[in-house]
């Protein structure tokens, strides 16, 4: 069942990319076309995708002149956790579409960067494996409500048992 998700086996750091658009081009070379299409595209005519890009680019960083820049830091505190920068991993389905290491590699990356990971109900790795790979880094959980309350209860019990402190 899980093997459906297995795609790229590319490993290692990606050298010399200038921006995320260039990173996307590199990813396209190693991820099968259908999986890449799912990850990189938006719904319908992709109006919202274009609007997201456009509005993100209008969030400006305002430089503070004549301020103390001896020890600059992007560190911040979110919900009691100190993270490296105000960047967290949003809920993203089926990481194994991109690479067979899937959520485990993503969780290790989040741990190394020191930020927050959001696990999604229908992850392509087993939940305890993700929590283990996070090695104590903060984990949030995105709950997808099922019509079947037994399934809902089982998922919530597993999330509680894993010690995940925030579900939404
Ligand atoms: C492959 C893929 C799967 C995603 N799966 C989910 C999901 O399961 N739940 C969800 O709320 N958002 C999902 N998203 C949306 C992301 O969480 C995120 O909001 C989106 O990529 C826009 O990024 P931004 O919020 O940083 O602008 C997914 C996005 C991608 C690219």
Automatic annotation (TrEMBL):
Stretches assigned to the FMN hydroxy acid dehydrogenase domain: 12-168
InterPro entries associated with the record: Aldolase_TIM (IPR013785), FMN-dep_DH (IPR000262), FMN_HAD (IPR037396)
Coiled coil feature spans: none
GO molecular function ontology, one term from the record: oxidoreductase activity
UniProt keywords, alphabetically: Flavoprotein, FMN, Oxidoreductase
Cofactor needs: FMN
Domain of life from the UniProt record: Bacteria
Protein name, per record: FMN-dependent dehydrogenase
């Amino acid at each position: 069942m899980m093997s459906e998700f297995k795609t790229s086996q590319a490993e290692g750091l990606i050298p010399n990319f200038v921006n995320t658009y260039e990173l996307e081009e590199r990813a396209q070379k190693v991820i099968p076309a259908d999986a890449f299409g799912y990850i990189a595209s938006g719904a319908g005519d992709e109006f919202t995708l274009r609007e997201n890009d456009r509005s993100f680019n209008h969030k400006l960083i305002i430089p503070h002149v004549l301020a103390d820049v001896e020890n600059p830091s992007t560190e911040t505190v979110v919900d009691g956790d100190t993270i490296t920068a105000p960047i967290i991993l949003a809920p993203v389905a089926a990481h194994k579409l991109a690479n067979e290491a899937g959520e485990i590699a993503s969780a290790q990356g989040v741990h190394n960067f020191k930020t927050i990971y959001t696990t999604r109900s229908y992850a392509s790795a087993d939940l305890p494996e993700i929590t283990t790979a996070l090695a104590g880094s903060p984990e949030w959980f995105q709950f997808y409500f099922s019509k079947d309350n037994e399934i809902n209860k089982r998922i919530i019990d597993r999330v509680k048992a894993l010690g995940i402190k925030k579900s939404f």
